[in-house]
Amino acid sequence: MSIETKLPIDIEYRLQTCTAGYRWVRSRAVARLDSSGQVVRWYGTLEDVHDRKLAEHALRDSEERFRLAAQAAGLGIWDYNASDDRREWSEEFKAMLGLPIDAAPSIDTALSCVVSDDRSKLLALIGAVRAGHSGHRFETMVRIQRADTGAERWMKTAGWRIEAPLGRLHRVLVTVRDVTEERNVEDRIRWTADHDGMTRIPNRTAFVGRLESAIATASREHTYVALVLFDVDHLKETNDTIGHDAGDLLLQTLASRLTKFFGEHCTIGRLGGDEFAAILERTDDHSLVVEVQAALDALREPFTYEGRIVDCQATAGGSVYPQHGSSAAEMLKAADIALYAGKERNRGGFLPFRATMRADLQRRSSMISVARDAARDNRIVPYYQPKVSLQNGAVCGFEALLRWRHPTLGVQAPGTIAAAFEDLDLATGISERMLAQIVDDMKRWLDNGVEFGRIAVNLSPAEFRHESLVSRILERLHRSGIATSRIELEVTETVFLGRGADSVAEALNVFSREGVKIALDDFGTGYASLTHLKAFPVDVIKIDRSFVSNLDTDPDDAAIIDAVVGLGHRLGMEVVAEGIETGVQARYLLDRGCDYGQGYLFGRAGPAETVPSIMAGKRIHVGRSPSIGAKPLG
Questions:
Q1: From CA 171, how far away is CA 428, in angstroms rounded?
Q2: Model confidence pLDDT, tens digit, residues 322-362
Q3: Rounded CA gap, 526 and 224, in Å?
Q4: What are φ and ψ of residue 431, in 5° steps?
Q5: Quick one: pLDDT at residue 553?
Q6: At what angle do helices 424-447 and 355-376 cross, to 10 degrees?
Q7: 17 or 564: whose pLDDT is higher?
Q8: Nearest CA among 549, 541, 545 for reference residue 569
Q9: Is the four-CA dihedral 190, 191, 192, 196 of positive or negative sign?
């Protein structure tokens, strides 16, 4: 004891009070010694420290609750006391860092676990806290590498700077939480928001953002930015014929090949459906054509899916900043116009934007709008041009030609709404109105005893993409009671080409079995081969007017006509010549054995009211003459 040792006394204890309670007191005393070193007296003080002791107990309880709460919440604790430069780490914090439980807490140990890219950020924060520049509360996010496994984890730290009187640093308390899983979820959400899930490349939103950034950079640096849109040529056919899994693989393959070809200097994105895009910075108009065409060549190699060959082909259109637009929206619009032109004129190739394309698109849009209004308002009408036997001049039928009535300009030719026949739904709607009126006209003629022969009706290639084509036409004929043999369907050579040829053949075979005649229009101007004439149920070949108009001056055209007439007859087909305007042309065709003719020589197309008068015994005399335009042999 201090009395025996004569050392100073400083103790805290409780005193019983007269009210049966107690209070905490602090006793401090020093001994007075005589010359022999013996205690002769004690001098001391008694201080009431009850309130302080209660506060300390409360603080200990609070700290215990805090530790328990932190442990339950998965928080690690870093406690720094500046008064004695003492650091304490909780067991949870050491476990987060992958340190042993007996690891000594130190700044160097903690910093050694922080990823190097984040270390400077943490050091700057520590310096700011020490200097009092961080405020009383601070937080940050850093990555650490566990000391035991090397695994990278995300840590979120929140801290409090506790100050002593006069603003001096007294204590720093920091909580640390492992937020790796949360961060991964956030990263996945952000990735999903910016990427296409199927192809794993940027989606439209992210791509447009990058395009805007590229344009801003090019504006500052006075350089170029090229935007290229790629449209997959056969996605729908692949989905329909092989399956959507094959279509998905086609999209993934195209995205992978584009990314590989252009490399890291280019941003590739999927804008939606079958459309992809690329941003090529510092690329001008000339070098763009070369680079994109090379990319299209790289894409073109087919691949196999479950033993089936899948074509991987795309068409591209592009625009260049600043020539074709000053914003992302303008660039996209220009590239889209170029892409549309490419799909029309250069499928499988690349077209850069030109100002004339915009005018062409506006004309097309105007055509479609006008055609849609005409179809809606029942202003689509058939005009009938007679088809004449060259042998006896008898009118044996008519071709129904589309006309439409303009509200102020009157009857218009179909060329003024030509773009409408490329639109599946609109072409089908126009065709339906034409067919309905043709059938009504035929029924009225029959009811009135007018013998009109066979009516030829034109079908556009777009209509063959509609599944209801066959049933729609046959059902209308059956309901009206008109024999199918009175209808002749005219198709151009383009319907025999491409990936939809199988469905075209099926439709034509059904028509043929039902007694409908099939005519091949404009023969010789397209790409149909003799194989197509054998593979499809063609009954009639129509020689295009381009050969007829020059047969008396161009020996080549005359030779082609001779060959077509001979070919048609050998295959058991009727041959019709279009665009006959002179007696010389008619006589030459008659001499060559051509069966029928159409053209201004025999009559222009007219409304249904003109047919009865034409059929009232009117004949055209076609005489004979020496052959013309014969090409010498040898």
A1: 82
A2: 999 999 999 999 999 999 889 888 888 999 999 898 888 88
A3: 41
A4: -60, -40
A5: 85
A6: 40
A7: 564
A8: 541
A9: positive
Contact 518, 536 (CB under 8 A): yes
Q: Is residue 458 classed as helix, strand or coil in its secondary structure?
A: strand
Strand 454-458 relative to strand 266-272, pairing: unpaired
Using an 8 Å Cβ cutoff, are 44 and 28 in contact? Answer: yes
Q: Starting from the edge strand earliest in sequence, which strands make up the sheet with 350-352, in order?
A: 266-272, 275-281, 225-232, 314-321, 350-352
Q: How far apart are CA 205 and CA 200, in angstroms?
A: 14
Average pLDDT, the chain: 86
Per-residue tokens: 378: 């029942």
Instruction: Decide: 278 and 319 in contact? Cβ < 8 Å.
Output: no
pLDDT tens by residue, 506-515 = 899 999 999 9
Could you give the 3-state DSSP secondary structure of residue 355?
helix
Instruction: Give the percent of the chain with pLDDT over 70.
Output: 91
Q: Is the sign of the CA dihedral 402, 493, 235, 262 positive or negative?
A: negative
Taking a C-beta distance cutoff of 8 angstroms, is the pair 342, 317 a contact? yes
C-alpha distances out from residue 180 to 70, 121, 194, Å: 18, 19, 21
For residue 396 the two structure tokens come to: 């044996």
pLDDT of residue 525: 61
| Of residues 156, 186, 44, 138, the one with CA closest to residue 96 | 156
State the Cα–Cα distance between residues 466 and 424, nearest whole angstrom: 7
Name the 3-class secondary structure at 482. coil
Measured in whole angstroms, the distance separating CA 217 from the mean position of its chain's CA atoms is: 25
For the chain, helix (H) and strand (E) counts, in that order, are: 20, 24
Structural domains for the chain: 1-55 (2.10.70.100), 74-183 (3.30.450.20), 195-353 (3.30.70.270), 381-616 (3.20.20.450)
Helix H or strand E segment including 474: helix 469-480
Reading the block at residue 343, the tokens are 């799909």
CB 577 within 8 A of CB 595: no
Q: Which of 154, 135, 132 is nearest to 144 (CA)?
A: 154
Q: What whole-number distance in Å separates Cα of residue 487 and Cα of residue 515?
A: 9
Q: What is the DSSP string of 567-608?
A: HHHHTT-EEEE----SHHHHHHHHHTT--EE-STTT---B-G
Helix (H, G, I), strand (E, B) or coil at 552: coil
Of 630, 104, 72, 621, residue with least CA distance to 388: 621
Looking at per-residue confidence, does 76 or 439 come out higher? 439
Sort strands 308-310 and 303-305 into parallel, antiparallel or unpaired.
Answer: antiparallel
Q: What is the DSSP letter of 233?
A: S
Q: What span, in angstroms and rounded, lies between the C-alpha atoms of 280 and 585?
A: 58
Q: Which residues contact 600 (CB under 8 A, 6 or more apart)?
A: 580, 581
> Which residue has better confidence, 590 or 237?
590
399 alpha-carbon distance from chain centroid? 43
Reported as type and span, the H/E element at residue 222 is: none
DSSP for residue 497: S
Q: Cβ neighbours of residue 124 under 8 Å, at least 6 residues apart?
A: none
Residue 458, pLDDT > 70, answer yes
Report the C-alpha gap between 487 and 485 in whole angstroms: 5
Confidence category of residue 258, pLDDT binned at 50, 70, 90: very high
Amino acid identity, position 608 = A
